[in-house]
Amino acid sequence: MPQTTGVLPPTFDRADGHAVFPQTDHDETARMNFLTGLNVHIGRTLSPGVRITYENRVKPKLEKAMREKANGGPTTSATDIRKAMLHDTYYQQWGALRRNTQEASQQASREIALRQVDALSAKAANLNEGRNTLSLDDSLTIPAYQAAVDNHLMPGSYYTEAVPGDVTAAATYEISLFPIGGASFGAKGDGGGRAMANFVRDRFPDLKPKRILDIGGGIGGNTLPLAAAYPDADVTVIDTAAPMLRYGHARAQSMGHSNVSFMQGLAETVDIEPGSVDLIVSVMFWHETSTKTVRDALAHMHSLLAPGGVMLHLEQPNFDDDTPVFERFMRDWDAYYNNEPFWPKLHTLDMFQAMEDAGFDKDKLFDAGTEADIEPGRFQPWSTIVTRHRHETKDLGDTGRKLSALGGYKGERWWLFGGRK
Ligand SMILES: C[S@@+](CC[C@H](N)C(=O)[O-])C[C@H]1O[C@@H](n2cnc3c(N)ncnc32)[C@H](O)[C@@H]1O
Prior knowledge:
By secondary structure, the protein is α/β, with parallel strands linked by helices. The protein has one domain: Rossmann fold (3-Layer(aba) Sandwich), CATH 3.40.50.150. Helix content is about 45%, strand content about 10%. The chain has an eight-stranded mixed sheet, with helices on both faces. Strand 3, helix 9 (about 240-255) and strand 4 form a beta-alpha-beta unit. Helix 2 crosses helix 11 (about 325-330) and helix 3 runs antiparallel to helix 6. The longest helix has about 45 residues, at about 25-70. The chain is globular, with a radius of gyration of 21 Å. The two termini are about 40 Å apart. The model is unreliable at about 1-5 and about 385-410 (pLDDT under 50). Bound molecules: S-adenosylmethionine. The site of S-adenosylmethionine has 23 residues, from strand 3. The site of S-adenosylmethionine (SAM) has 23 residues, from strand 3.
């Protein structure tokens, strides 16, 4: 078990600001701290109780009912568990608290961003003006799978605009990651990108990328570590959502990254010269797209890669034959109660087969586990491991880097997967 007892989450004032980071007053900061703490408390203290209530109160009755129904041994599915758990008071209260804490975190973040809508868009416009590294496409239609829901209950999603030139969707996204992720992504929210940069350097020391794409790269928080690792490369963030790109571009400019451009486009069709890209990455992207898009985008990425180029993605791990049915039930919670409708399909997709179908050579596919790599300094090391995502990730063995200062850490890793062309 990770050694976490008694360690509190970092406070919101420790998040690294930048020129377009929303200002917070005393009460807003206190609210963000409370919500971060509550999310961590749910993940760390209350979530383990769901297994206890299942094992002790629900499973015996469910298995008895299954035996009677099936006239044989119980073959319980994740759906059977969820339906049975819906009647359990502990599960009801845990689920209601989790849902409401997520909503409160999103609403609090949205409110902070919206009350400074004009100031934020003016700051972004100022930093973006006259640069040729931001390219927006007014004719892009937001795909139905993205328009249908506000993912993870983020009001207005990534792409809606309250005023012309609006960046509040992006500001909301950036600050909401702090409470909903239990401050586990680092002071700049770039722990995933730092982990990917480490992985590419270790695994492909011969790769000297001249052109890098981050697909669904949003505000570029996880792109910047790659831009820093490969300062001679041209790095491009591709995303559907104009507010994310405007804000991300201004953010990168204000942080001094001159080799990163931001381009509006769809992962599955973006107009880039085939065979011209050396490294394609994504962070937490696939779970918000339809299965068709997963397949189309993988094929498109294969066509964009140069020979010898690498594709690398960071996501929650998919299920495999060894994933216990209780874990499947827990990890699909967000599909039902947190506006993440694509999780169950993605979790059961054979990603290796999908990459092969997209044109990648079976022998050049890989995967590994990694923790977020938290930049030392402003956050305590606990935040690399104490996360609400604990039950959404799993131990993938000894393949990832061990960066936790607490040592001895074995589980709850993000999944890295990809292929080389
Ligand atoms: C969960 S966010 C992740 C953002 C970023 N990678 C990060 O680490 O913070 C997913 C992003 O994917 C974008 N997105 C969804 N579908 C897309 C598509 N088909 N093509 C490009 N971007 C897409 C969304 O607009 C959103 O910014």
